[in-house]
Amino acid sequence: MSSYDIAVRGAGAVGRSLALALSRQGLSVALLASPPRGAGPDVRAYALNAQAVNLLRNLKVWDAMPADAATAVSEMLVHGDAHGSRLEFSAWGQCVDALCWIVDAQALDEALATAIRFAPHVTKLPADAQVQATLTALCEGKHSATREALGVNFQVKPYGHTAVAARLVADRPHEGVARQWFRSPDILALLPFDRPQPRCSYGLVWSMPAERAQALQALSDADFDAALNEATGGAAGTLKLDGPRVGWPLQLSRAEALCGPGWVLLGDSAHTVHPLSGQGLNLGLGDVQALALVIAQREPWRPLSDEKLLRRYVRERAVPTMAMQQLTDGLLHLFEQDAPVLRELRNRGLDLVNQLTPLKRWLAGRALGT
Fold first, then answer.
1. Which parts of the chain register pLDDT below 50?
2. Distance CA 303, CA 318 (A)
3. Where's the FAD-binding domain (predicted)?
4. What pLDDT is recorded for position 350?
5. How far is CA 315 from CA 153, 265, 287, in A?
6. What's the CA gap between 334 and 350, in Å, rounded?
7. 138: closest CA among 127, 79, 130?
8. Alpha-carbon distance 150 to 54, whole Å?
């Protein structure tokens, strides 16, 4: 049986990034790959903040992607459920080049896979391979079988909502503007994109109660387009589907223990959030960066399996993860309430925050990792 310093279980974006980050420290890494995704195009799009982009750039992955695989967001408009109520963010107001970058999930996966093939200390193995490793990092996603086998309690709060994702084409340029509608009971996001049509494409993430999502998924493409354009009110032009729609159930979750002797959890294996803020992968890549730094700074005599070492990582990630979970959960519950008084208060709140520039900059900085 082969022996390695670290076994990374799960070869998604978080697992591959961790394998690359640790291999750069000269550690031997076994990357245990999960079964590949089903056939068909991947319609997912990630919203990556500056910290995530810097990590991928340092791993020599970011600049390896095609030029049209990442689109800079220069402006973000958050619409309330009252006419004219909205919150505006701009890269200029934040003094940054971009608020975030919308990234093609398939292109990122391909760039990471290529980097793994050329990483000298990474050995890619089947998910069921038997290996010995000083430390096992679990990056298998929210349904992690290894986490379950360890007996780690995974606290799950189902939202009863489904996220519907698709690729869209508009009849006018997006100008790098991301849009989001917070309305009872749905949340709709349009992420500016350059695929399939440069400057006129969007990634759609539309979350809503499961029954409504099921009905929406059953519509023809033409009827779905009509429902979508009614929901957005023409703010981004006339929108049309370009490809399939996919959906998945939404939940808030967190593992009760994030580490133990010889094992540690990262990404969706450790926590999940509602996609309304686009922070899921950012949190996972933040886990990667924190664990890699903790390992790089460990005492020469301390083994990788030392639980005291791994608790440093847990402490480092506790506050940002909890803060993002509380923020997304609170926003969801605030905007899913349909009472007229609450609707009036939250729309007035959006307008008030929009006028308070320091508060708006602080909020944007927390979400965008700047």
1. 341-342, 344-345, 347-348, 350-360, 362, 370
2. 23
3. 5-323
4. 46
5. 19, 13, 11
6. 12
7. 127
8. 33
CA atoms of 102 and 112, how far apart (whole Å): 17
Which domains are delineated in the chain?
Answer: 3-156+250-368 (3.50.50.60)
b/e map 282-299, b = 16+ CB within 10 Å: bbbbbbbbbbbebbeebe
Distance CA 257, CA 292 (A): 19
> Scanning the structure block, which residue is given the tokens 């520039």?
357
For tokens 């420290």, what's the residue? 25
SS3 content of the chain, % helix, strand, coil (to 5): 40, 30, 30
The pLDDT value recorded for residue 35 is 61
DSSP 8-state symbol, 84: T
Q: Report the amino acid identity of residue 215.
A: A
Helix, strand or coil, per DSSP, at residue 203: strand
* pLDDT digit string, tens, across residues 102-140: 999 999 999 999 999 999 999 999 988 889 999 999 999
Amino acid at 103: V
Using left for φ > 0, alpha for ψ between -120 and 50, and beta otherwise, residue 129 falls in: beta
318 membership: H or E segment, kind and range: helix 307-336
DSSP 69: G
Identify the pLDDT of residue 354: 46
Residues facing residue 55 across a β-bridge: none
- pLDDT for the residue numbered 273: 92
| Cα separation, 198 vs 84, whole angstroms | 29
Residue for token pair 């320091």: 358
> Which helix (DSSP H) or strand (DSSP E) does residue 111 occupy?
helix 105-118
Copy the structure tokens of residue 24: 């750069």
Beta-strand runs (E) in 171-266? 177-182, 187-193, 201-209, 239-241, 246-255, 259-260, 263-265
In sequence order, which residues have a C-beta less than 8 Å from that of residue 110 and are 6 or more positions away? Answer: none
DSSP category for residue 121: T
| Local structure of residue 61 (DSSP, 8 states) | -
Strand, helix or coil for residue 260: strand
Mean pLDDT of the chain: 87
